[in-house]
Design goal:
With 544 residues, the protein is mostly beta strands. It has four helices and 39 strands.
C-alpha cells in the first residue's frame, strides 16, 4: 500500500567514535500509477525542513562510509505492523537489528522504532526493503551505498556520477490482493511488467556528459524473476559485487538475479544522443521488457531504432557469465590490506551442509520448504526467545543439514551451527525454475556451480583462489551451487529464497550461529530500545 516517507538526514562526527548519520522516516499511504493503473503502493518522500512527496516507489538512498553508525528512526503510520530489513548489511554481532520476523518485533501501527546499525568493515552496494506481510510487492525499497574510507584505495578513478538503479518485476494487483492469493493456498500469476527506479518504460532517465564515466549500482529488488540489464551501444565494466571489488571484466549485458546487487562503470563514449537502457526477464516463456533513457547532456536527438535484444532462456550463457565474475585479489576492500590476503581455499571445512528446495501441498494449500521443512513463523522472534531463554518457541535441529527425501511439513526451522567454524554449504536445485538465495549477516565465497547432482567429486572444480564473495547467489534449474562461509558473526540469521512468494510460503529457515560466550566482543546484548512482543512481552532490556 502506498507509503510516503518523510525523510531527514543529518551527519556528524562524534569524538573518538565512527561518524553517525541520522535518518527519520514516516511511513504512510498513497497512490501512484507505475504501470498505468492506480495502485496503493509504498511511496517515498524526502524531507529537508519541508516534506515534499515524490511520485516514486523508491525511498531515499542511504549514503554511508565504512564503519559509519546509522540511526534510522521509522514511524509506522500504516494500519498494520511494519519492518525494514537491510539486504547485505552484516549487522556485526547484532542480529537483533536485522529487521526480519525471526529477529525483530514489528513496529506496531502508530508506533516507531529506531534501528541502530553499523556498517562495520563493509563497502559496496546494497538495498533495504519492507520484510513483512508481502509489503515488498508494494515497493518501499531504496539503495544503500557504503563508500571506502578516504585513505583506502579504490581500484578505479572516481566516476563523474554515481546512480542507484533499482530494477524488478511488478504486478498491477495491490500487495494485499497478492497476499490474499498466497494465503488462500494458490500460486501467484505471472508479473505484469518491470519497473526501473519505480517507473515503467521510458519513465526513468539518467543524465551523462559525453566522454565521462559513471557508476551504476544495479539491484534486482523484484519478487521472482532474474533480469538482464544492458545499455544500447554501451559496454558495462563490472567493478563491484555486494561489497567485493571484482576483476574488471567488460560485458555487453549482465544477468542480475533476484536479490542481487552489482556495480558497473559506463563510459559515455558514443555520439551525443539518447540511448535505451533495457531490462528484460530471463528464463521465462513470456519475456517482460522495460526501458529507461541514458541521456547525453548535448544530445542531438531522441532514442532511435529498436531497443537492443538480450539473452532469454539460455542457461549456459548465464552460467558462464557467473563463473567469470571473480574477486580482484590486489584491490583493497574495507581495509587497506588486499582482498586476496584471506586465503579461503587453504582453510579446511569443518562441516558440509546440503540444502534442497521442495514444493508441495500442506493442509490443502501451496507451501515451499528447504530439506522438507516449510518455515512456520512463531509468535515471538527467535532471537528474542534465544536471548531471554524462552522455551517452546523453537527447537535447535528442527531442520536437517541434509535433504530427508520426505514430504513437506510445517515447523519453525532453526539450524544449529558453531561460532568460528568454516563450513561448506551446497544448495541443490532439483526443480525446473532458477532459484536465488540470500543469507543475512554474512558474505560467502561462491566456489562452484554446475548442472546435475552435486557429489564429493564436484569439489574438484571449485574455485579456491578468487571466487567472488557476496550474500546472494543463484542456483540454476536442475543444478547446484556451493559456497564456503566463515561463521564469524554470532546471531540468528535468516537464510531465505529471494523468490518472494516462496519465502512467504516457507522456503526459508534461520541459522543459529552459537557460542557459549556472553562477551560483547562476540555478541551485543539486546538493544535497550528493542520492541518486545509475543512471549518476550514484559521482559526487560539492558539498563541505559
Amino acid at each position: 500500500m502506498a507509503v510516503v516517507l518523510c525523510f531527514s538526514l543529518f551527519a556528524m562526527v562524534a569524538v573518538a567514535e565512527d561518524p553517525y548519520r541520522f535518518f527519520n522516516w514516516n511511513v504512510t499511504y498513497g497512490d501512484i500509477y507505475p504501470l498505468g493503473v492506480r495502485q496503493q503502493v509504498l511511496l517515498s518522500s524526502y524531507v529537508s525542513y519541508i516534506c515534499v512527496v515524490l511520485e516514486d516507489l523508491i525511498r531515499p538512498d542511504i549514503h554511508s562510509v565504512t564503519n559509519d553508525n546509522l540511526i534510522i528512526n521509522v514511524f509506522n503510520s500504516l494500519d498494520q505492523p511494519f519492518l525494514l530489513s537491510w539486504n547485505g548489511v552484516q549487522q556485526r554481532r547484532n542480529s537483533f537489528e536485522d529487521g526480519v520476523s525471526g529477529t525483530t518485533c514489528p513496529i506496531p501501527p502508530g508506533g516507531n522504532f529506531t534501528y541502530i546499525l553499523q556498517v562495520k568493515d563493509q563497502i559496496g552496494s546494497f538495498y533495504y526493503f519492507p520484510s513483512l506481510a508481502f509489503h515488498k510487492a508494494a515497493g518501499g525499497f531504496g539503495g544503500i551505498r557504503i563508500l571506502s574510507r578516504p585513505r583506502i584505495p579504490v581500484p578505479f578513478d572516481d566516476p563523474a556520477g554515481d546512480y542507484t538503479v533499482l530494477i524488478g518485476d511488478w504486478y498491477k494487483l495491490n500487495h494485499t490482493d497478492l497476499r490474499a492469493i498466497l494465503d488462500g493456498g494458490s500460486k501467484l500469476p505471472f508479473p505484469d511488467g518491470i519497473l526501473i527506479n519505480g517507473r515503467g518504460s521510458n519513465g526513468a532517465s539518467f543524465n551523462v556528459e559525453q566522454g565521462k564515466t559513471y557508476r551504476l549500482r544495479i539491484s534486482n529488488v523484484g519478487l521472482e524473476n532474474s533480469l538482464n540489464f544492458r545499455i544500447q551501444n554501451h559496454k558495462l565494466k563490472l567493478v563491484e559485487v555486494e561489497g567485493t571489488h571484482t576483476v574488471q571484466t567488460t560485458y555487453s549485458s549482465l544477468d542480475v538475479h533476484v536479490g542481487q546487487s552489482y556495480s558497473v562503470l559506463v563510459t559515455a563514449d558514443q555520439p551525443a544522443q539518447d540511448y535505451y537502457i533495457v531490462v528484460s526477464s530471463r528464463f521465462t516463456s513470456t519475456v517482460l521488457t522495460s526501458t529507461a533513457i541514458l541521456r547525453y547532456s548535448n544530445s542531438a536527438g531522441p532514442v532511435s531504432g529498436p531497443p537492443p535484444g538480450g539473452p532469454t532462456i539460455q542457461i549456459d550463457w548465464s552460467l558462464n557469465q557467473a563463473r567469470s565474475i571473480r574477486t580482484n585479489l590486489t584491490a583493497s576492500g574495507p581495509r587497506p590490506n588486499p582482498q586476496g590476503s584471506y586465503h579461503y581455499g587453504l582453510i579446511n571445512t569443518t562441516r558440509t551442509i546440503i540444502l534442497s528446495s521442495s514444493a508441495g501441498i500442506v493442509n490443502g494449500k501451496q507451501r515451499y520448504g528447504i530439506n522438507s521443512v516449510s518455515y512456520l513463523a512463531p509468535d515471538t522472534p527467535l532471537k528474542l526467545a534465544d536471548y531471554f531463554k524462552i522455551s517452546g518457541v523453537f527447537r535447535v535441529g528442527s531442520i536437517s543439514d541434509r535433504p530427508t527425501g520426505g514430504g513437506i511439513y510445517l515447523d519453525t526451522s532453526v539450524l544449529q551451527t558453531d561460532y568460528r567454524t568454516f563450513v561448506e554449504i551446497v544448495i541443490q536445485n532439483d526443480e525446473d525454475v532458477i532459484q536465488s538465495y540470500h543469507l543475512d549477516g554474512y558474505s560467502f565465497f561462491v566456489v562452484g556451480m554446475d548442472g546435475g547432482q552435486w557429489t564429493a567429486a564436484s569439489r574438484n572444480q571449485y574455485n579456491l583462489r578468487d571466487a567472488v564473495s557476496r550474500s546472494t547467489t543463484q542456483v540454476y534449474p536442475k543444478s547446484w551451487t556451493a559456497i564456503y562461509i566463515a561463521l564469524d558473526n554470532v546471531g540468528m540469521w535468516n537464510l531465505r529464497s529471494e523468490f518472494w512468494a516462496r519465502q512467504y510460503l516457507g522456503q526459508q529457515f534461520y541459522m543459529r550461529v552459537y557460542t557459549t560466550s556472553t562477551s560483547i566482543r562476540d555478541e551485543y546484548p539486546v538493544p535497550k530500545n528493542a520492541l518486545l512482543c509475543g512471549r518476550a512481552s514484559g521482559r526487560h532490556t539492558r539498563p541505559l
